[in-house]
Here is the input.
Amino acid sequence: MNATPPIHALSFDVEEHFQVANFARVISRGAWDSEPSRVERNTHIILDLCDRANVKATFFTLGWVAERRKNLVREIVTRGHELASHGYDHQFVDALGERGFREDVRKTKQILENACGARILGFRASTFTITKRTPWALQILAEENYRYDASIFPVRHPAYGIPDAPRNVRIENLQNGKSIVEFPPLTLRMFGRNIGAGGGGYFRLFPYWYTSYAFSRAAREGLAGSLYLHPWEFDPQQPRVEAGAIATFRHRVNLAKTEARLERLLAAHPFTTMRRAIESSLGNDVFNHIKN
Here is the structure.
């Protein structure tokens, strides 16, 4: 690894506000096209914020969104950011199964590359659902020519996570001589367990100082941290979806604070794209050594 201080990764999962897993039982996929779209508006808020902070980020984008918002996908790349895959329509990896997952990641990669004209290297699964239930997922990603994954969350959670997974960015050696880089979301090691600190609900529910401390501590430990957020998290005026008290609270808590908190965090810590953070941690030639 490089001796230089780590640079953290900034990323966004580009999806509509109604596509989150918590709303799946009240808004079916068949109804998505009839819902009001806000992803373009919200992603522009993020793009402008990144311009102000002079920071580049990685945008893990749904194939479903890219098909309908080709201009947005092209603008992300034109403005100097990295485009990556978030799968086609936000299905859990274990629900897709091996064959369905392969078809999904292959289809989405093609949609994104055709839309932006750039090679897609990275993948993040819906709701971090590459877990011990899906041991074949990384192998399929490597076979489909992805170079890195950002789906294994080293926490204990009912829907996702591998609590004993490593917390650092690393090369995973797979079957048949293949390999892939794994870059997990940031966690904070406390009281003998990993606690989520890498964005999303953790970013909005916990106070700002917790997130900032987690990135500072990761840097002291020599770890590059990864932050993830969603465009809908910058949109307190989005339509309210009644999906039960807990799901609604988790979705809407502190939406009005996300933009200011992120701007403050970007001023306090060094961030870049997933690809550049990986190269900073593992060497500029790391992707030349990944075996697909």
About this structure: Residues 93-116 form the longest helix (24 residues).
